[in-house]
Write the structure tokens for this entry.
Amino acid sequence: MACQQSRYHSFSSASRLQPRPSGVTIDESFLTEDKSTQNRKLLQKRRTLTGQFSMGGHLSPWPTYTSGQTILQNRKPCSDDYRKRVGSCQQHPFRTAKPQYLEELENYLRKELLLLDLGTDSTQELRLQPYREIFEFFIEDFKTYKPLLSSIKNAYEGMLAHQREKIRALEPLKAKLVTVNEDCNERILAMRAEEKYEISLLKKEKMNLLKLIDKKNEEKISLQSEVTKLRKNLAEEYLHYLSERDACKILIADLNELRYQREDMSLAQSPGIWGEDPVKLTLALKMTRQDLTRTQMELNNMKANFGDVVPRRDFEMQEKTNKDLQEQGQCPCPQLDTLRASYEEVRKEHEILMQLHMSTLKERDQFFSELQEIQRTSTPRPDWTKCKGEGSRQGPRSCLHVGPDSSSLSPHADVVAGGPERWQMLAEGKNSDQLVDVLLEEIGSGLLREKDFFPGLGYGEAIPAFLRFDGLVENKKPSKKDVVNLLKDAWKERLAEEQKETFPDFFFNFLEHRFGPSDAMAWAYTIFENIKIFHSNEVMSQFYAVLMGKRSENVYVTQKETVAQLLKEMTNADSQNEGLLTMEQFNTVLKSTFPLKTEEQIQELMEAGGWHPSSSNADLLNYRSLFMEDEEGQSEPFVQKLWEQYMDEKDEYLQQLKQELGIELHEEVTLPKLRGGLMTIDPSLDKQTVNTYMSQAFQLPESEMPEEGDEKEEAVVEILQTALERLQVIDIRRVGPREPEPAS
């Protein structure tokens, strides 16, 4: 140990630095001040503390040997000289104590550290302050090593500052991590609560199912026991009937025997054979009966074998006649030649008549097709009163040229945008009545394009809620396609979730959500004016009817569901998933989906779908194209025909109801009478559906409807015409077939 301590060099004795007393506190502002201020304070503190711990102006050279001792030279451990020197060192060990300056510095450092509360994070930075001061003292006293020590200090201080900035930058991430952790914990707790709730529901459902299974098992056991009992009873009854049958047979045999004996006795006692031996007569009767039985069997065999045999006499007569005819055919016979000539003439006339018949059929088909085309394009005559409606303010003569043929209509160039070419496209396939509708729509759309503003209708009670406004409203001037797409989006949002508000309120809220409160009223007026004009467009006309209360929205929903169900049935019938069906499959799907439609209605649907009487049932049909729509929302003729048949069926249903009631339209009808009329024309109606119809017809909530047989029923009356008009609004249709009237 002494040898190792002898390798330390002596320090310079120029130091005047002493540790400060324990009563001196550390200023925390030292960490935040600049470098010059820190150096100035350290110099002042150094001057203050120098005189207190000075050791005569010299630093102690501890640990070293006494004066005159030199540093050991490098020697090999095994050499004799090394052993001698080690022995001499062990004989004269130094006992120099630790220098007072070092002890004072250690004591100063220990006291400064004790003054700090190292248990908190705020003093972790202050803990380095005493070390910084002592290190500064060493730098100032050791002038030779000052640059190196200063660079070391600056390197550590820079690294500490960098780490401090990095920690400060990570503080927000720590806070964010805590927040995210809390959110995740809340989500986990919520998920656990939800899972716990679902588990409880599943457990309840499991218990209910187990109870149901136990109940079913008990029912099964009871039924099995009942079946066993019935089988046992059946076996007993079967044995009883067997015994009864055998007893009946025995009794019949006994009765026959007694009858035979009585007959024998009567024969034996008859006057003609009085005196004959009864035994002999009995034997003769027995033999006679056997002969009768044998004869009867032979007769039956003869009938079975020769029942179809022709008598020989008839056969010979027919053979002779045949021979005479053959002889006449070989020799010339005037009668036979005449018959043959007549036959040939009649055959030729028949062929000529068949050719005439075929040509007549072709002409008939051609004339029939021409007649249908003429009826489609020429009838009915235009309803000119439509020109005075809401869609136009001009008379018919201001917009049409009427030629000699009243069915040929040509508009002025300023009425239909696009000129004659567009008019030809619009008029294709439409009769004159439909052309009037097209022309009125074109006139109305032209007037709409010219308007920049709509006058507000005010706040009257008769004004719909979504149109109540005073002043001018801007005309947004959308295209027909834009209006159709907007209405489709409104229907999608309406059907997406259950809406408790009325349809007009929903429509205005939808516009506010789509365009904002400032433009909602302008779009409401714009869309209302457009759908009021375009009656030929399905989407616009149906939306207008629902919006104005002329038709219930359930009608639209039911129609869409019917079309979707029909498409699903056709897809199920398409086993190859090729989008093709044969006409036979198409007919089968229509009949299964619409069992109440007549053969004529099914035929109309098939023709609207592309079937013709001349085509065969093996022809393929692309059924998916029947449900497509164009960009303006117009559906294919097949879907249009479905809608037309639905409206016709509703009118026919209400007409049958009126006939069943047997009263005039202006007369009053009571609730029981209307209920009875509905149940008569449609016996398959359930109570809930009848109550719905009654509630609509008499404008009463279903909860306030009187029960059937209640005295209050007779007090509920309504004009028949009003009730039928209210029923026309909702989705009313036949549920089952009407019972046939009993034959007189």
About this structure: The mean pLDDT is 76. The chain has five domains: 2-144, 335-378, 385-550, 551-638, 662-744.
